[in-house]
Amino acid sequence: MNNVTAIYPGSFDPTTNGHVDLIRRGSRLFHSLIVAVLTNLEKKPLFSLRDRVEMLREVTRGMSNVSVETFSGLLIDYARRRKARAILRGLRAFSDYEYELRMALVNRKLEPELETVFLMPTESYAYVSSRLVKEIAQLGGPIGGLVPPPIEKKLRLKFGRR
Ligand code: PNS
User: In this structure, is residue 137 part of a structural domain?
Assistant: First the structure.
């Protein structure tokens, strides 16, 4: 999609291999992709905003048309400011569908010119979520293969395991 800038918004608390897979797919599809980290999360995040941004920058370092930014307020306002024409979101299991449909339709109502584009992650990451990864890490389970190695290390440190 020539000249289309897309935004991939999310909490990224923390980045999983599913996110990285989607960023890679999006970077091939769009002219440029902005990974946008939401600053004002409803729930207290495990990782600070700074950590979440740093982790994303580290794992997207080799992707020349990908940048990482933060945003607050309405996504459509941010998209307008960044002149983005698409929002990228991942669809994993069927259970994502209702939440994603609602968000996409609300955003379309607010800004009809902005399209939400859904991509599916590699099937091996279809069950991976930040929430599950945090739970496994907290309980001392193995998270290798679910998150990129630098994030695995950060999670282990966070929960006092080396
Ligand atoms: O990774 P997440 O937590 O599922 O991402 C949710 C996110 C950040 C995409 C969503 O909460 C969002 O866009 N928040 C910004 C506020 C907004 O625009 N709300 C109206 C659209 S639902």
Answer: no
Say what the pTM is: 0.96
d(CA 145, CA 141): 12
Task: Indicate if the alpha-carbon torsion angle 73, 59, 29, 68 is positive or negative.
Answer: positive
Whether 47 is covered by a domain: the verdict is: yes
Return the ligand 1 atom nearest residue 36 CA: 8
Decide: 101 in ligand 1 pocket, CB within 6 A.
Answer: no
As for how many domains the chain has, the answer is 1
Domain of residue 56: give its range: 5-126
Residue 45 beta carbon below 6 angstroms from any ligand 1 atom: no
Residue 46: what pLDDT? 96
| pLDDT average, residue stretch 123-128 | 92
